[in-house]
Design goal:
It contains seven helices and 17 strands. It is an alpha+beta fold. It has two domains: 17-101, Phosphorylase Kinase, domain 1 (2-Layer Sandwich), CATH 3.30.200.20; 104-262, 2-Layer Sandwich (D-amino Acid Aminotransferase, Chain A, domain 1), CATH 3.30.470.20. The strands form four sheets. Strands 8, 9, 12, 13, 14, 15, 16 and 17 form an eight-stranded antiparallel sheet that branches.
């Protein structure tokens, strides 16, 4: 069924919902998702924006969805002529996508291939990752014995809650096993694609929704907002030297705000121009890599 499109003489559309990074416009059985230049880190939205970020994220996600020929997903089109007339203006150009409307599953399906971020912090504290024991002696940034599924409960405001897979099965018994299987398969697909381009994907998150009793992949996929990436040559240098891994995503921002002692609660600190510029450069670099796949 086609969505009803408003005439072009109506007032500009008002979001049905504003997320941390995206604005959502409900059209009935479809939605328009608009990627802003807002930045969220540690589940807090920053006052400073990353210029052009929304368009970059939109192009990256659209290209990945085009590569997923046999994976059910919500993506319809990012082309301007596929959008309803009220979304034809410059405010929406290049940063909007038309998708199927699903019932979102409120869990983030995180997959990690390397010991980074909150995963490393858990391991350093308890020797576990998502509640599962890992071998002793692993170091920050190390390749895991196998990619790990480390789910989280999704919160639209405030911090997401990392949980074990066993806990996920208790809370979501009908879908937990399938979500883990799909997430690991998606990660393996992207890992091999990017490795061939000299890039490691260190970790990522997926979201899923239900439409007509079918699980669909939704939201963004394999972007610098939802994933961590590093050039393989730079990764190997950093591991050999025992220094921080120079990732190609918003880890630059995370590292900066941790270095100044921010407690990760609102309000977020202001970002220096240099941090913003470096973040833009890394996002653009990842866009070039992905669009070459």
């Amino acid at each position: 069924m086609e969505a009803v499109h408003a005439s072009t003489d109506l007032a500009p559309p008002v979001p049905s919902y504003k997320g941390k990074v995206r604005d959502v416009y409900d059209l009935g059985d479809q939605m328009v998702l608009v990627s802003s230049d807002r930045l969220s880190a540690f589940d807090v939205v920053f006052g400073d924006t990353i210029p052009g970020k929304g368009k970059i994220l939109n192009q990256i996600s659209a290209h990945w969805f085009s590569l997923l020929k046999n994976v059910p997903h919500h993506f319809i089109s990012e082309q301007a002529d596929a959008l309803p007339p009220q979304f034809q203006g410059t405010a929406f150009a290049g940063r909007s996508v038309l998708v199927k409307k699903t019932k979102r599953i409120d869990f983030e399906c995180v997959v990690r291939a390397f010991l980074m971020g909150s995963g490393f912090k858990e391991y350093a504290a308890s020797g576990t990752l998502a509640g599962e024991k890992l071998p002793v002696g692993l170091v920050k940034g190390q390749l895991l014995p196998a990619p790990a599924f480390t789910p989280a409960v999704k919160n639209d405001s405030g911090h997401d809650e990392n949980i074990s897979f066993a806990e996920m099965k208790k809370r979501l018994p009908a879908y937990a096993d399938t979500l883990r299987e799909k997430s690991l398969a998606l990660f393996a697909f992207a890992f091999e694609k990017l490795k061939a381009k000299g890039i490691y994907i260190l970790d990522t998150k997926f979201e899923f929704g239900i439409l007509n009793d079918e699980l669909l992949l939704i939201d963004e996929i394999f972007t610098p907002d939802s994933s961590r990436f590093v050039e393989i040559a730079e990764y190997e240098k950093a591991i050999a030297a025992g220094v921080e891994i120079p990732t190609m995503d918003k880890q630059i921002v995370r590292d900066y705000v941790e270095s100044i002692g921010w407690d990760k609660n609102p309000p977020a600190p202001r970002l220096p121009a240099e941090v913003i510029q470096k973040t833009v450069a890394q996002y653009k670099k990842m866009e070039e890599v992905v669009l070459s796949l």
